[in-house]
């Protein structure tokens, strides 16, 4: 009996040691993966130097804004866009089924700004329209080849916004990815929203710099009319509520037709959601489109999110069960210091250096958020874009 127990205890000890070894090996795999994403993928933006001297651009540009019940935002932001320092541009506002007094405001503004064009969509009882339909009508109404997109709640950082973005168009450049940060206000939700926006921007801008763009943000995005119609616009994903920006870029970008613009004068600022319910609706809508990305982009983003999440889970297990705790902490510190070094430079380019102090906590929450909302977005469908 004693011998049997000894054999059992020996086998159990061997199994326990084997399990710990396997978990620690997987922890190291996650560590190496994370280090690769941070140093290689995210590092491109850290070393990028925006062009300081504004390049002369005078190509005709059409700015397109889709707005639903945005009277107050249009009242404040639209003049700042209409009064941009640029020689040849028009602004098209698609008034998408608004029930406020946007129509009266836009009519009054047309009297003051002859380069403002308004396209009105009225609600139909049987047919519901979304943002992609509104943007398509705006693009059809545009008289110019080069299109620049933003939202009604976005404020240009300067009167050089159009000039900065348009200067990137060349014979081969068809897509320009801009940056749209959130305003800084007090509160946990604002802090995390700003951090998530920064991390997303570092990822998609760096990917574009490496010739493998996978998304853009519609608050600050430009592309050509020819590209839009040559690829049948949003037809491939018209059934999906979101994706007028990231899915369009994902499906139409190449290694040579996409560039980025991250000079501070080109930023488009907006306000983050102020309630958790509004933030939840926004994130479930955004996360749902990732499954339609190209396969290699899905794999890349999924493993980045999962390896980051598992890195923290396995780190916690190593510390709880005291299995190589010093080495585990050492790997954590190497990753953290690499992040601080890379993100310090990247945040200097696109703002947000105040968030570096909270990086250990925000980064943990970020990877939990990615995995939780990735699952939610796979099962829950939203039915409205506003």
Automatic annotation (TrEMBL):
Keywords: Membrane, Transferase, Transmembrane, Transmembrane helix. Residues 62-187 form the Glycosyltransferase 2-like domain. The keyword Transferase applies. Coiled coil: none annotated. This is Glycosyltransferase. One of its GO terms (molecular function) is transferase activity. PANTHER family: GLYCOSYLTRANSFERASE (PTHR43685), GLYCOSYLTRANSFERASE 2-LIKE DOMAIN-CONTAINING PROTEIN (PTHR43685:SF2). The chain crosses the membrane at residues 20-39, 301-320, 326-343, 355-380.
């Amino acid at each position: 009996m004693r011998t049997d127990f000894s054999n059992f205890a020996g086998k159990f000890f061997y199994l326990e040691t084997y399990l710990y070894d396997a978990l620690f090996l997987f922890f190291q795999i996650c560590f190496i993966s994370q280090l690769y994403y941070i140093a290689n993928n995210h590092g491109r933006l850290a070393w990028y130097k925006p062009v300081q001297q504004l390049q002369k651009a005078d190509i005709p540009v059409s700015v397109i804004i889709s707005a639903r019940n945005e009277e107050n935002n249009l009242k404040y932001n639209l003049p700042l866009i209409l009064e941009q320092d640029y020689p040849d541009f028009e602004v098209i506002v698609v008034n998408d089924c608004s029930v406020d007094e946007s129509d009266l405001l836009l009519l009054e503004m047309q009297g003051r700004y002859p380069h403002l064009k308004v396209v009105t969509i009225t609600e139909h009882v049987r047919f519901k329209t979304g943002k992609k339909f509104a943007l398509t009508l705006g693009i059809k109404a545009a008289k110019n080849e080069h299109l620049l997109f933003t939202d009604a709640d976005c404020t240009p950082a300067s009167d050089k916004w159009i000039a900065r973005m348009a200067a990137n168009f060349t014979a081969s450049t068809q897509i320009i990815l801009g940056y749209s940060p959130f305003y800084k206000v007090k509160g946990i939700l604002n802090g995390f929203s700003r951090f998530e926006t920064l991390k997303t921007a570092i990822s998609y801008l760096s990917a574009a710099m490496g010739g493998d763009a996978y998304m853009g943000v519609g608050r600050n995005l430009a592309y050509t009319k020819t590209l839009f119609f040559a690829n049948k616009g949003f037809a491939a994903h018209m059934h999906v509520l979101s994706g007028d920006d990231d899915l369009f870029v994902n499906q139409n970008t190449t290694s040579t037709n996409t560039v980025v613009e991250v000079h501070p004068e080109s930023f488009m600022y907006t306000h983050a959601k102020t309630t958790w319910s509004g933030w939840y609706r926004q994130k479930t809508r955004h996360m749902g489109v990732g499954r339609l990305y190209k396969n290699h982009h899905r794999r890349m983003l999924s493993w980045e999110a999962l390896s980051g999440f598992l890195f923290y889970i396995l780190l916690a297990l190593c510390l709880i069960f005291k299995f190589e705790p010093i080495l585990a902490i050492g790997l954590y510190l190497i990753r953290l210091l690499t992040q601080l070094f890379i993100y310090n430079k990247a945040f200097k380019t696109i703002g947000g250096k105040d968030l570096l102090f909270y990086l250990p906590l925000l980064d943990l929450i970020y990877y939990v958020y990615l995995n939780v909302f990735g699952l939610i977005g796979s099962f829950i469908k939203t039915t409205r874009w506003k």
